[in-house]
Amino acid sequence: MVNHKFIHLTKVELSYQLQSKLLLLITILFLILSIINYHSLYQYAVNNYQLFQKTEQEMRDQGVDIEEELQKTPRISNDGNVETIENVLAYDFKNVQTSIKAFHANQVLNNTFGWLSLVFFPFIFSIYGIVVATYDYQYKTLKQKLVHSTFKSIFMSKIFSTLLFSIVNMFILTIASFIIHRIFFDKLKKNIPINEFVVENVGEDSNQLKIILFAFFVTFLFSMLGLSIGFIVKSALLPSVIIISINFLLPIQGKYDLRNLLANFGHELFTFNPNFVLFQPVSVPLFQAGAIIITFIIGLVIISYVIASKQSKYGS
Question: Which domain of life, per UniProt (predicted)?
Fold first, then answer.
């Protein structure tokens, strides 16, 4: 009987989120961000190729042996605020190679989840969790649900619904990433003779599953963070403003700041491209960082449950 009630509550939660277009809006937002990311990578590659062509033509006009010039090693030296590049053509050639490397199939998940997981997932899924926790308070439907179910069942159904959405979101984004990559890669091949820029060391497939698991972990982690805060505060606006402010305005507060802990995983898993370079975190062993994050979020969820259930007139 309890299982049936729990399943029913979970369906109710998912039904509301679908009807409110909350899930649809979040998914569309991430798809748009993925398209923007790939468009930027495409534009960066095209600009680098055009610069290479310009440098190559200038050297041809000067009678320089292009093949010999490309065999040289590019060097960058700094004298105060002045940066000097030696062997400019080789330097431009290498930049084109680097740009094309970002379009290798092994880099699809890296490109998509590298910046989404570490920049956008934290605050968007925190707000999502806050909304899921607070809409029963906002629309005065909690007491109505408590007539037929326990607060514990309602609380767990919200957790389970966010878990299901995290799984679905990851599935959609993963599939969409390869489609978006293919579209822009085909477009790139029409504008750059890729075969002339042999790209080596494009990376291994070994990190692909780890990247997906990490991205899923971040979505669920911050959904739980938002859910817990929402149940404690019972309001969506103030916590959402605080979450956004912390993400974008507050500097990192030491090595145990959640953002610093996640950045340690980020540098371990991702290869960052010119569109997005993650800040260098204060080093924390990954096992320790993971243990701290998991302990923190479990503790917060338990605290929020205890507080919210006691505050509810019919809480259990």
Answer: Bacteria
